[in-house]
Amino acid sequence: MSGVDWLVLFGTLGAIVAYGTYKTRGIKSVGTYLRGGEDSRWYTVGLSIMATQASAITFLSTPGQGFEDGLGFVQFYFGVPIAMVILSATIVPIYYRTRVLTAYEYLEQRFDLKTRQLTAAIFLLQRGLGTGISIYAPAIVLSAVLGWPTPVTTVAIGLIVIAYTVSGGTRAVNQTQQLQMAVMLSGMALAVAVIIRQLPVSLGEAVAVAGVMGKLKAVDYSLRPDTRYTFWSGITGGTFVALAYFGTDQSQVQRYLSGESLAQTRLGMLMNGLLKVPMQLLILSVGVFVFVFFQFNPSPVFWNRAALERARPAIAPLEQRHEELFAEKQQLLGRWRAGEPVQAELAAVEAKDRDVRAEARKAVAKADPLANTKDSDYVFLTFVMTRFPAGLVGLLLAVILCAAMSATASAMNALGTTTMVDFYKRSLNPKVDNDRALRLTRWFTAGWGLVAIGFALVASRLDNLIQAVNILGSIFYGPMLGVFLVGFFTKRVRGTAVFVAVLAAQALVIAVFAASDIGFLWYNVIGCAAVVAIALAWTALRPGSLPAQ
Amino acid sequence: MDADEEDRRWRKAYAVVLLALAVTVAALTALSKVAW
Fold it and tell me: Cβ contact (<8 Å) for B18 and A211?
């Protein structure tokens, strides 16, 4: 990396952190610290929501998805605009009316203390571990591509985020996220422009090549259960996941509760609904154009170079086969551009090449069982490092680090807030004064930051743990959404019914996880439906649990 | 502005967001069906 790149990278990150810290200096009120002063305009709310969801792995994995499977992944986001409309019309006005600081506080108003603290505890467990992953996941990719030691990247990202999140609270997170989002969007738009300029063919031809190779099949209306991303799974499962995430996860709820008014918050959420799908299309199209680029330029058979080297003797014949197929593709593309109908032959060669790459992944896994074999995560960063001009490399690294920091900051902010509001202030010391509450919330936030860094550091030695954390998230999201749905849309169900329902639904989802091969996405549906059904059944069968008329 | 008028305006805003989604899906469907 050149000196200019380092300057751009540290200049961008330093300026954002300095701005966030400066704008939020001297916060004296715990209310301002937790709710961000309730003066955020709609664009701050909208950008903050988007930045919270955009983690570093979004910018590493999504172009990789585009490279491998084309635009189809965008269907997963079709549920976001629908969820934004539903939440704006139903849940958000309730949060505003009840003046809550956390989503779980509402559950005590609606049900009882035990339901509030059970859901808050589930959030702390799930998000506390998840935050470690959001630091660790980009650290492994950055270290593989840049040669930086993983612990250095992990600790550096973690400590920077702790510094400004602890100092400025919610407002610092929102203020920095505005700038981080601006860097992310402009960085990706520039990336598209640079990649298009590097293509050896015109833009029109590049699009046609992507089309011939099947990368522009964005919408799939088939009902096959083995196809992960279809229109139907996006509209149903995608809406479901988005409702649970945006409606009940404190790291998101805290973003929009900082809005100046209900109207500003709603506008911010609708902004997310309008921009999310185009943004994902932009990031996926980066991957598609990188794919087109490598139809005309040689590419490695496996993109994680460090792991490839370790598998070298076994992988040599596969590399040779990959090169032969590349030569064949070149020939066919030449004939196709001359007007010959060779689309079917091209697709066949591409399918063979995919098989060769799958073989290569197996060979790498055999040589090093701990290697990250999802090599599509490395495609975009490798392209940036080897093909982008000086200065832009630094900017694109800033994009990835901004994403890591923005997602982590929201989570730490929410974890600290939940610990203070739902546990310390509620049960341990209800009369805590402003200064002490502010000081303690800062300590809680820093503490959760250190837990996340610690988890990220050991995650490298516990590869299966990451998988476990991802499953953990899916196991808990469904029942969590179920509790809120029962709260919002029923009047008769009381605290004990929903508390029992959560425990039973949780046990059911864990049993489904242990005893079946059902995909993760369905845990959300099963958990949510079970909570609603059990809570309603309990209420119907135990009329004594109804409130006195 | 009274509450009904405000509700109407929000419903319009929601319709715009959902219409944008529908237009995007229609455009992407058309793109998926092109025989290159």
Answer: no
Residue A375: pLDDT band (50, 70, 90) is confident
Sign of the Cα torsion B8, B14, B17, B22 reads negative
Q: Which of B7, B24, B34 to mutate to test the interface with A (most CBs of A within 10 A)?
A: B24
Is it the case that residue A284 has pLDDT exceeding 90? yes
Residues within 8 A of A (CB atoms), B 1-36 only: 10, 13-14, 17-18, 20-21, 24-25, 28-29, 31-32, 34, 36
User: Per CB distance under 8 Å, which residues of A are interface residues toward B?
Assistant: 71, 74, 78, 81-82, 84-85, 88-89, 208, 211-212, 216-221, 231, 266-267, 270, 273-274, 277-278, 343
Give the mean pLDDT of chain A.
88
pTM: 0.89
- The mean pLDDT of A3-7, rounded to a whole number, is 92
CA–CA distances in Å: residue A485 to residues A90, A122, A265 = 10, 17, 21
Distance in Å, alpha carbon of A277 to nearest chain B alpha carbon: 8
The three state secondary structure string of A434-499 is HHHHHHHHHHHHHHHHHHHHHHHHHHCCCHHHHHHHHHHHHHHHHHHHHHHHHHHHCCCCCHHHHH
pLDDT by residue (tens digit) across A55-105?
Answer: 887 888 889 999 999 999 999 899 999 999 999 999 999 999 998 999 999
**Residues for chain B: how many in total?**
36
**How many of the other CB atoms lie within 10 Å of CB of A266?**
25
Q: What is the pLDDT of residues A295-306, one digit of tens each?
A: 999 999 998 888
User: Residue B7 burial by CB count (10 A; 0-12/13-18/19+): exposed, middle or buried?
Assistant: exposed
Q: Which residue has the tokens 């009120």?
A: A29
Place of tokens 């690294």: A397
* pLDDT tops 80 at residue A428: yes
Q: Where residue A370 falls among pLDDT bands split at 50, 70, 90?
A: confident
Contact B14/A88, CB-based, under 8 Å? yes
CB contact under 8 A, B14 and A278: no
Tokens of A331: 């020939």
pLDDT value for A269: 97
Q: Report the pLDDT averaged over residues A214-236.
A: 85
Contact A216 B31 (CB under 8 A): yes
Give the count of alpha carbons within 13 A of B21, CB side only. Answer: 27
